[in-house]
Predict the structure.
Amino acid sequence: APTDHLLATRLDDALHATVDRCERRGASMRFSQQLIRPADNAQLVTAHVRAALLDAKTFRPCPIPADLLPE
């Protein structure tokens, strides 16, 4: 998953993180993430992440329960 480090942070910077769900499939979902410095509204990092739900015993993909992550 690509991550772009656009600017460096500084000690004691206040940071704001966002996470948006982009796509949901049967056993996986994709997220877009941003790290922003509110003082100057600078975008510091962007990332695109794909996560999958796995069965704890078999480590095989399993469907995301509807009540866990509603559409």
